[in-house]
Amino acid sequence: MLSKKKRVSKLPSIEKTARDFTILDGEDYIDEIFENDMKISRSFTRFQLSEEEYEENYGRVIKSLLSTGEHKFFVAVDRYDRYLGHVWVCLKVDTVDFVPSAYIYDIETLFPGMGIGTALMERAEEWAKKKGARKISLRVDVSNPARKWYSEKGYSERAVIMEKML
Amino acid sequence: MLSKKKRVSKLPSIEKTARDFTILDGEDYIDEIFENDMKISRSFTRFQLSEEEYEENYGRVIKSLLSTGEHKFFVAVDRYDRYLGHVWVCLKVDTVDFVPSAYIYDIETLFPGMGIGTALMERAEEWAKKKGARKISLRVDVSNPARKWYSEKGYSERAVIMEKML
After folding, report:
1. How far apart are CA B7 and CA A127, in angstroms?
2. Residues of A in contact with B135 (CB under 8 A)
3. Residue B40 sits at the chain A interface (C-beta within 8 Å)
4. Which band of pLDDT confidence, cut at 50, 70 and 90, is reported for residue A7?
5. Which among A44, A128, A134 has the least Cβ separation from residue B47?
6. Which position has the higher pLDDT, A8 or A140?
Protein backbone atom coordinates (compact mmCIF):
# COMPACT_ATOMS: atom_id res chain seq x y z
CA MET A 1 0.00 0.00 0.00
CA LEU A 2 2.73 2.40 0.98
CA SER A 3 4.86 1.46 -2.00
CA LYS A 4 1.93 1.94 -4.33
CA LYS A 5 1.30 5.39 -2.95
CA LYS A 6 4.95 6.25 -3.40
CA ARG A 7 4.91 5.10 -6.99
CA VAL A 8 1.85 7.17 -7.80
CA SER A 9 3.32 10.29 -6.26
CA LYS A 10 6.33 10.03 -8.55
CA LEU A 11 4.20 10.47 -11.69
CA PRO A 12 4.10 13.97 -13.20
CA SER A 13 0.87 15.82 -12.52
CA ILE A 14 -1.95 14.98 -14.91
CA GLU A 15 -2.22 18.60 -16.06
CA LYS A 16 1.27 18.25 -17.50
CA THR A 17 0.69 14.96 -19.29
CA ALA A 18 -2.84 15.57 -20.61
CA ARG A 19 -1.70 17.20 -23.84
CA ASP A 20 -0.05 13.97 -24.93
CA PHE A 21 -3.20 11.85 -24.91
CA THR A 22 -4.35 8.64 -26.61
CA ILE A 23 -7.88 7.45 -27.38
CA LEU A 24 -8.70 3.93 -26.22
CA ASP A 25 -11.75 1.67 -25.99
CA GLY A 26 -13.44 2.81 -22.81
CA GLU A 27 -14.93 -0.44 -21.53
CA ASP A 28 -12.15 -0.93 -18.95
CA TYR A 29 -12.77 2.58 -17.62
CA ILE A 30 -16.54 2.29 -17.08
CA ASP A 31 -16.38 2.97 -13.32
CA GLU A 32 -14.26 6.06 -13.81
CA ILE A 33 -16.46 7.25 -16.68
CA PHE A 34 -19.66 7.10 -14.66
CA GLU A 35 -18.05 8.44 -11.50
CA ASN A 36 -16.88 11.45 -13.44
CA ASP A 37 -20.12 11.85 -15.37
CA MET A 38 -22.19 11.67 -12.20
CA LYS A 39 -20.30 14.70 -10.87
CA ILE A 40 -20.53 16.72 -14.08
CA SER A 41 -24.16 15.86 -14.83
CA ARG A 42 -25.25 17.24 -11.49
CA SER A 43 -24.43 20.77 -12.64
CA PHE A 44 -27.06 20.52 -15.39
CA THR A 45 -30.11 19.74 -13.27
CA ARG A 46 -32.40 22.66 -12.57
CA PHE A 47 -33.89 20.97 -9.52
CA GLN A 48 -32.73 20.81 -5.92
CA LEU A 49 -32.03 17.19 -5.11
CA SER A 50 -30.50 15.59 -2.06
CA GLU A 51 -27.27 13.65 -2.65
CA GLU A 52 -29.14 10.40 -2.08
CA GLU A 53 -32.03 11.24 -4.40
CA TYR A 54 -29.65 12.43 -7.10
CA GLU A 55 -27.52 9.28 -6.96
CA GLU A 56 -30.55 7.01 -7.04
CA ASN A 57 -32.11 8.82 -9.98
CA TYR A 58 -28.80 9.06 -11.80
CA GLY A 59 -28.46 5.27 -11.50
CA ARG A 60 -31.97 4.74 -12.84
CA VAL A 61 -31.35 7.00 -15.83
CA ILE A 62 -28.10 5.24 -16.76
CA LYS A 63 -29.69 1.82 -16.42
CA SER A 64 -32.61 2.88 -18.58
CA LEU A 65 -30.36 4.37 -21.29
CA LEU A 66 -28.20 1.24 -21.33
CA SER A 67 -31.26 -0.99 -21.75
CA THR A 68 -31.75 -0.19 -25.46
CA GLY A 69 -29.37 0.17 -28.39
CA GLU A 70 -25.74 -0.80 -28.89
CA HIS A 71 -23.34 1.17 -26.70
CA LYS A 72 -19.72 2.14 -27.12
CA PHE A 73 -17.33 4.08 -24.90
CA PHE A 74 -14.00 5.66 -25.73
CA VAL A 75 -11.65 7.29 -23.25
CA ALA A 76 -8.78 9.70 -23.59
CA VAL A 77 -5.84 8.75 -21.36
CA ASP A 78 -2.41 10.17 -20.75
CA ARG A 79 0.77 8.06 -21.16
CA TYR A 80 0.24 6.60 -17.68
CA ASP A 81 -3.25 5.46 -18.71
CA ARG A 82 -4.89 8.07 -16.51
CA TYR A 83 -8.46 9.09 -17.45
CA LEU A 84 -8.76 12.49 -19.17
CA GLY A 85 -12.21 12.35 -20.74
CA HIS A 86 -14.70 10.12 -22.50
CA VAL A 87 -17.40 9.81 -25.07
CA TRP A 88 -20.46 7.57 -24.78
CA VAL A 89 -22.20 6.79 -28.03
CA CYS A 90 -25.24 4.61 -28.70
CA LEU A 91 -26.59 3.12 -31.92
CA LYS A 92 -30.35 2.79 -32.43
CA VAL A 93 -33.15 3.56 -34.88
CA ASP A 94 -33.86 7.28 -34.84
CA THR A 95 -37.33 8.19 -33.54
CA VAL A 96 -37.87 10.85 -36.20
CA ASP A 97 -35.88 9.79 -39.25
CA PHE A 98 -36.38 6.02 -38.82
CA VAL A 99 -32.83 5.19 -39.94
CA PRO A 100 -29.97 3.65 -37.93
CA SER A 101 -28.54 6.57 -36.02
CA ALA A 102 -25.95 7.27 -33.35
CA TYR A 103 -26.49 9.36 -30.23
CA ILE A 104 -23.72 10.94 -28.25
CA TYR A 105 -24.99 10.75 -24.67
CA ASP A 106 -21.83 12.24 -23.17
CA ILE A 107 -18.71 13.89 -24.33
CA GLU A 108 -16.59 15.15 -21.48
CA THR A 109 -13.03 16.22 -20.94
CA LEU A 110 -11.18 17.26 -17.79
CA PHE A 111 -8.95 19.60 -19.81
CA PRO A 112 -10.71 21.64 -22.48
CA GLY A 113 -8.76 23.29 -25.29
CA MET A 114 -6.28 20.46 -25.86
CA GLY A 115 -8.13 18.68 -28.65
CA ILE A 116 -9.33 15.85 -26.42
CA GLY A 117 -13.03 16.49 -27.12
CA THR A 118 -12.40 16.71 -30.86
CA ALA A 119 -10.46 13.44 -30.89
CA LEU A 120 -13.17 11.68 -28.85
CA MET A 121 -15.87 12.97 -31.15
CA GLU A 122 -14.03 11.89 -34.26
CA ARG A 123 -13.56 8.42 -32.83
CA ALA A 124 -17.26 8.16 -31.95
CA GLU A 125 -18.30 9.32 -35.43
CA GLU A 126 -15.92 6.85 -37.06
CA TRP A 127 -17.32 3.99 -34.94
CA ALA A 128 -20.91 5.01 -35.73
CA LYS A 129 -20.27 5.24 -39.45
CA LYS A 130 -18.62 1.83 -39.50
CA LYS A 131 -21.66 0.43 -37.66
CA GLY A 132 -23.99 1.74 -40.37
CA ALA A 133 -25.37 4.87 -38.71
CA ARG A 134 -26.67 7.38 -41.23
CA LYS A 135 -26.43 10.31 -38.84
CA ILE A 136 -25.20 11.22 -35.38
CA SER A 137 -27.10 13.38 -32.89
CA LEU A 138 -26.70 14.96 -29.50
CA ARG A 139 -28.60 17.16 -27.11
CA VAL A 140 -27.23 20.41 -25.74
CA ASP A 141 -28.84 22.90 -23.39
CA VAL A 142 -29.91 26.12 -25.15
CA SER A 143 -27.56 28.19 -22.99
CA ASN A 144 -24.57 25.84 -23.19
CA PRO A 145 -21.57 27.45 -24.96
CA ALA A 146 -20.77 23.97 -26.38
CA ARG A 147 -23.56 24.64 -28.89
CA LYS A 148 -21.14 26.78 -30.89
CA TRP A 149 -18.44 24.13 -30.65
CA TYR A 150 -20.75 21.44 -32.06
CA SER A 151 -21.75 23.77 -34.83
CA GLU A 152 -18.09 24.22 -35.77
CA LYS A 153 -17.78 20.43 -35.86
CA GLY A 154 -20.47 20.26 -38.53
CA TYR A 155 -23.56 19.64 -36.38
CA SER A 156 -26.69 21.56 -37.29
CA GLU A 157 -29.76 22.27 -35.17
CA ARG A 158 -32.54 19.88 -35.99
CA ALA A 159 -35.04 20.05 -33.15
CA VAL A 160 -35.84 21.80 -29.91
CA ILE A 161 -36.69 20.22 -26.58
CA MET A 162 -39.43 22.29 -24.97
CA GLU A 163 -40.59 21.87 -21.41
CA LYS A 164 -43.00 23.16 -18.83
CA MET A 165 -42.85 22.83 -15.07
CA LEU A 166 -45.77 21.01 -13.47
CA MET B 1 -71.52 -6.92 -43.78
CA LEU B 2 -73.87 -5.01 -46.02
CA SER B 3 -75.99 -3.83 -43.12
CA LYS B 4 -72.91 -2.62 -41.27
CA LYS B 5 -71.81 -0.62 -44.28
CA LYS B 6 -75.24 0.90 -44.53
CA ARG B 7 -75.26 1.87 -40.90
CA VAL B 8 -71.85 3.56 -41.17
CA SER B 9 -72.87 5.52 -44.22
CA LYS B 10 -75.76 7.01 -42.29
CA LEU B 11 -73.49 8.75 -39.80
CA PRO B 12 -72.78 12.41 -40.45
CA SER B 13 -69.32 13.06 -41.88
CA ILE B 14 -66.57 13.23 -39.29
CA GLU B 15 -65.66 16.79 -40.32
CA LYS B 16 -69.09 17.83 -39.09
CA THR B 17 -68.98 16.04 -35.77
CA ALA B 18 -65.34 16.72 -34.82
CA ARG B 19 -66.06 20.00 -33.09
CA ASP B 20 -68.14 18.23 -30.47
CA PHE B 21 -65.38 15.98 -29.18
CA THR B 22 -64.68 14.11 -25.92
CA ILE B 23 -61.35 13.01 -24.44
CA LEU B 24 -61.16 9.34 -23.42
CA ASP B 25 -58.52 6.90 -22.22
CA GLY B 26 -56.81 5.79 -25.41
CA GLU B 27 -55.92 2.22 -24.62
CA ASP B 28 -58.87 0.82 -26.61
CA TYR B 29 -57.77 2.85 -29.62
CA ILE B 30 -54.13 1.72 -29.75
CA ASP B 31 -54.34 0.24 -33.25
CA GLU B 32 -55.93 3.37 -34.67
CA ILE B 33 -53.43 5.57 -32.83
CA PHE B 34 -50.39 3.84 -34.26
CA GLU B 35 -51.91 3.45 -37.70
CA ASN B 36 -52.51 7.17 -37.80
CA ASP B 37 -49.15 8.04 -36.26
CA MET B 38 -47.29 5.83 -38.71
CA LYS B 39 -48.74 7.86 -41.58
CA ILE B 40 -48.05 11.25 -40.00
CA SER B 41 -44.55 10.40 -38.74
CA ARG B 42 -43.43 9.51 -42.22
CA SER B 43 -43.63 13.17 -43.26
CA PHE B 44 -40.94 14.05 -40.70
CA THR B 45 -38.16 11.78 -41.89
CA ARG B 46 -35.46 13.42 -43.96
CA PHE B 47 -34.41 10.11 -45.49
CA GLN B 48 -35.74 8.17 -48.47
CA LEU B 49 -37.05 4.88 -47.16
CA SER B 50 -38.96 2.13 -48.92
CA GLU B 51 -42.41 1.38 -47.52
CA GLU B 52 -41.11 -1.90 -46.10
CA GLU B 53 -38.02 -0.37 -44.49
CA TYR B 54 -40.06 2.45 -42.99
CA GLU B 55 -42.67 0.13 -41.50
CA GLU B 56 -40.04 -2.16 -40.03
CA ASN B 57 -38.07 0.71 -38.49
CA TYR B 58 -41.22 2.43 -37.26
CA GLY B 59 -42.16 -0.80 -35.47
CA ARG B 60 -38.72 -1.04 -33.86
CA VAL B 61 -38.84 2.56 -32.66
CA ILE B 62 -42.28 2.15 -31.07
CA LYS B 63 -41.26 -1.11 -29.40
CA SER B 64 -38.12 0.50 -28.03
CA LEU B 65 -39.97 3.56 -26.72
CA LEU B 66 -42.60 1.37 -25.06
CA SER B 67 -39.90 -0.71 -23.33
CA THR B 68 -39.13 1.91 -20.66
CA GLY B 69 -41.29 4.19 -18.55
CA GLU B 70 -44.99 4.27 -17.78
CA HIS B 71 -47.14 5.05 -20.79
CA LYS B 72 -50.53 6.64 -21.17
CA PHE B 73 -52.69 7.37 -24.19
CA PHE B 74 -55.67 9.66 -24.53
CA VAL B 75 -57.85 10.00 -27.59
CA ALA B 76 -60.29 12.60 -28.78
CA VAL B 77 -63.43 11.07 -30.27
CA ASP B 78 -66.63 12.43 -31.74
CA ARG B 79 -70.07 11.46 -30.41
CA TYR B 80 -69.94 8.25 -32.47
CA ASP B 81 -66.63 7.33 -30.80
CA ARG B 82 -64.70 7.99 -33.98
CA TYR B 83 -61.00 8.78 -33.59
CA LEU B 84 -60.09 12.48 -34.01
CA GLY B 85 -56.63 12.69 -32.45
CA HIS B 86 -54.45 11.42 -29.64
CA VAL B 87 -51.69 12.16 -27.19
CA TRP B 88 -49.04 9.67 -26.06
CA VAL B 89 -47.30 10.56 -22.83
CA CYS B 90 -44.62 8.66 -20.93
CA LEU B 91 -43.37 8.99 -17.38
CA LYS B 92 -39.69 8.41 -16.56
CA VAL B 93 -36.70 9.96 -14.82
CA ASP B 94 -35.40 12.88 -16.86
CA THR B 95 -31.90 12.35 -18.28
CA VAL B 96 -30.82 15.90 -17.51
CA ASP B 97 -32.80 17.03 -14.48
CA PHE B 98 -32.94 13.64 -12.73
CA VAL B 99 -36.51 14.12 -11.52
CA PRO B 100 -39.67 12.21 -12.48
CA SER B 101 -40.71 13.76 -15.75
CA ALA B 102 -43.28 13.29 -18.49
CA TYR B 103 -42.57 13.19 -22.21
CA ILE B 104 -45.14 13.82 -24.87
CA TYR B 105 -44.10 11.49 -27.69
CA ASP B 106 -47.03 12.41 -29.91
CA ILE B 107 -49.80 14.88 -30.02
CA GLU B 108 -51.82 14.69 -33.19
CA THR B 109 -55.19 15.82 -34.37
CA LEU B 110 -56.99 15.23 -37.66
CA PHE B 111 -58.71 18.59 -37.39
CA PRO B 112 -56.54 21.47 -36.21
CA GLY B 113 -58.08 24.67 -34.88
CA MET B 114 -60.94 23.08 -32.96
CA GLY B 115 -59.25 22.87 -29.57
CA ILE B 116 -58.64 19.13 -29.80
CA GLY B 117 -54.86 19.45 -29.38
CA THR B 118 -55.27 21.80 -26.43
CA ALA B 119 -57.69 19.43 -24.71
CA LEU B 120 -55.40 16.44 -25.28
CA MET B 121 -52.40 18.34 -23.96
CA GLU B 122 -54.28 19.46 -20.86
CA ARG B 123 -55.35 15.91 -20.15
CA ALA B 124 -51.77 14.63 -20.57
CA GLU B 125 -50.41 17.33 -18.25
CA GLU B 126 -53.06 16.58 -15.66
CA TRP B 127 -52.23 12.86 -15.76
CA ALA B 128 -48.49 13.55 -15.51
CA LYS B 129 -48.91 15.89 -12.56
CA LYS B 130 -51.08 13.39 -10.73
CA LYS B 131 -48.39 10.75 -11.35
CA GLY B 132 -45.76 12.93 -9.68
CA ALA B 133 -43.98 14.37 -12.73
CA ARG B 134 -42.18 17.61 -11.95
CA LYS B 135 -42.07 18.73 -15.57
CA ILE B 136 -43.30 17.76 -19.01
CA SER B 137 -41.20 17.84 -22.19
CA LEU B 138 -41.49 17.34 -25.89
CA ARG B 139 -39.38 17.52 -29.00
CA VAL B 140 -40.29 19.64 -32.00
CA ASP B 141 -38.43 20.14 -35.27
CA VAL B 142 -36.78 23.58 -35.53
CA SER B 143 -38.86 24.45 -38.59
CA ASN B 144 -42.19 23.10 -37.27
CA PRO B 145 -44.80 25.86 -36.82
CA ALA B 146 -46.07 23.94 -33.75
CA ARG B 147 -43.10 25.41 -31.90
CA LYS B 148 -45.04 28.65 -31.55
CA TRP B 149 -48.15 26.80 -30.40
CA TYR B 150 -46.22 24.99 -27.63
CA SER B 151 -44.72 28.28 -26.57
CA GLU B 152 -48.22 29.75 -26.21
CA LYS B 153 -49.12 26.74 -24.06
CA GLY B 154 -46.36 27.65 -21.61
CA TYR B 155 -43.52 25.46 -22.90
CA SER B 156 -40.08 27.04 -23.06
CA GLU B 157 -37.04 25.99 -25.06
CA ARG B 158 -34.65 24.02 -22.92
CA ALA B 159 -32.29 22.20 -25.27
CA VAL B 160 -31.38 21.73 -28.87
CA ILE B 161 -30.95 18.45 -30.75
CA MET B 162 -28.00 18.83 -33.10
CA GLU B 163 -27.10 16.34 -35.78
CA LYS B 164 -24.65 15.60 -38.52
CA MET B 165 -25.03 13.27 -41.48
CA LEU B 166 -22.51 10.42 -41.65
Report:
1. 58
2. 163-166
3. no
4. low
5. A134
6. A140
**Nearest beta carbon to residue B136 from set A135, A158, A166:** A166
pTM of the predicted structure, to 2 decimals: 0.90
**ipTM (interface pTM):** 0.91
Instruction: Report yes or no: A50 at the B interface, CB cutoff 8 Å.
Output: no
Q: Residues 7-36, chain B: which have Cβ within 8 Å of A?
A: none
> pLDDT, tens digit, for every residue of B97-127?
999 999 999 999 999 999 999 999 999 999 9
| Residue A119 Cα, gap to closest chain B Cα (Å) | 16
Does residue B4 have a pLDDT over 60?
Answer: no
**pLDDT at residue A44, rounded to an integer:** 87
Residue A94, CB-side half-sphere exposure with 13 Å CA sphere:
29
Which pLDDT tens digit goes with each residue over B137-156? 999 999 999 999 999 999 99
Residue of chain A whose Cα is closest to the Cα of B63: A68
A162 contacts B155? CB cut-off 8 A: yes
**DSSP calls for chain B:** -HHHHHHHHHSPPHHHHTTS-EEEESGGGHHHHHHHHHHHHHTT--S---HHHHHHHHHHHHHHHHTSSEEEEEEEE-TT--EEEEEEEEEEE-TTT-SEEEEEEEEEESSTTSSHHHHHHHHHHHHHHHTT-SEEEEEEETT-THHHHHHHTT-EEEEEEEEEE-
For residues B116 and B153, give the distance between their C-alpha atoms in angstroms, rounded to a whole number.
13
* Residue among A47, A97, A157 whose CB faces B99 most closely: A47
Q: What pLDDT was estimated at residue A9?
A: 64
B63 part of contact set with chain A, CB < 8 Å: no
- B contacts of A59 (beta carbons < 8 Å): none
Mean pLDDT of chain A: 93
